[in-house]
């Protein structure tokens, strides 16, 4: 009986080890693909740092302000509208207003990074 119990335990450990190894490989591949998609330049590093500091990803900021492009005029227009609509004096939410402000700050930082990258490419 003990022999079968040991075999079951060993077999179970092998299955778990294989599954864990496969999961680590998949996560590593996904991480590499994400790094390739982001790029490897200074702008990508600055964008990642901005996401970390703002506590908000670029995608989330775009969704909050309902913009698809990084056009500063569209960003500002949507920001102004959403900020006024969510003003506490008209029954809005301070929490939503703060999310809107953080989203605009995140997008403004991304626009700044994009402009800096373009100007550095123009110099070269």
Lay out the secondary structure.
Elements: H1 2-38, H2 42-54, H3 58-65, H4 72-85, H5 94-123
Helix pairs in contact: 2-5, 3-5, 4-5
- What is the CATH top level name of the largest domain? Mainly Alpha
Helix-strand sequence? HHHHH
Task: Indicate the CATH topology of the largest domain.
Answer: Helix Hairpins
List low-pLDDT spans.
Answer: none
Largest sheet, strands/sense/barrel: none
Please provide a written account of the structure:
This protein is mainly alpha-helical. It folds into two domains: about 40 residues; about 90 residues, Helix Hairpins, CATH 1.10.287. It is about 80% helix and about 0% strand. It is built from five helices and no strands. The mean pLDDT is about 85. Its main location: mitochondrion. One of its GO terms (biological process) is protein import into mitochondrial matrix. It is a peripheral membrane protein. Keywords: Membrane, Mitochondrion, Mitochondrion inner membrane, Protein transport, Translocation, Transport. This is Presequence translocase associated motor 16.
Q: What brief labels describe this structure?
A:
2 domains; 124 residues; single chain; elongated; 0% strand; Helix Hairpins; mainly alpha
Short summary of the structure?
The protein is an all-alpha fold and 124 residues long. It has helices spanning 2-38, 42-54, 58-65, 72-85, 94-123.
